[in-house]
């Protein structure tokens, strides 16, 4: 029962993490302009992995997709790939983990085999979380480097909310995968048939039993 509860909680954590990864991937707030207040007509400038947006003072938001993938910076292209791979791995891990849950009747009924399937799903969840953590941290490092670089003449940005969601998502995914891995218990190897089993017996115990029998015999004779 405890193992089943651990697996269900782990799967819920991992699925929550994958949902946050999806939200972070499609979000347009990976970086937000820190100089938006200097322009009267624009109150905020923010970018994501797929488009950049401008929020005007009237409340309207205008977004434009990036025209060409090859014109983007290398770290943006790599972050795109890492996030997409992470989502694919997360979907795959969800399917695998469901088959490995002890409370489900899908696939095999062997608990040891189900445990190995759950272990595989947990490892894939951990890998997906690590890929997301790499993408988000690299993107944040590039924003920080450009912000504090005095020679950088472009628009300086700050960390957006999507990065914090990505960090939380990677943590949830890694935790869920770790709990799934912890739910697997390796079966102890059985004793081989026909193998000789040595039973050690303390010689002092034989002496104690002989002494007790002797004392009992003497006591019975004295009573007679």
Automatic annotation (TrEMBL):
InterPro entries with a match to the protein in the record: Claudin (IPR006187), Claudin_CS (IPR017974), PMP22/EMP/MP20/Claudin (IPR004031)
Superkingdom, taxonomy of origin: Eukaryota
A GO MF term: structural molecule activity
Keyword Transcription regulation: no
Single biological process term from Gene Ontology: bicellular tight junction assembly
Cellular compartment(s): Cell junction, Tight junction; Cell membrane
Transmembrane parts of this sequence: 74-101, 122-141, 161-182
Signal sequence bounds: 1-20
Membrane topology: Multi-pass membrane protein
Entry keyword annotation includes Signal: yes
UniProt-listed Pfam families: PMP22_Claudin (PF00822)
Swiss-Prot/TrEMBL keywords: Cell junction, Cell membrane, Membrane, Signal, Tight junction, Transmembrane, Transmembrane helix
Cellular component GO terms, alphabetical: bicellular tight junction; plasma membrane
PROSITE patterns hit by this protein: CLAUDIN
Annotated family: Belongs to the claudin family.
Function as written in the Swiss-Prot or TrEMBL entry: Claudins function as major constituents of the tight junction complexes that regulate the permeability of epithelia.
Protein name according to UniProt: Claudin
Lineage: Eukaryota, Metazoa, Chordata, Craniata, Vertebrata
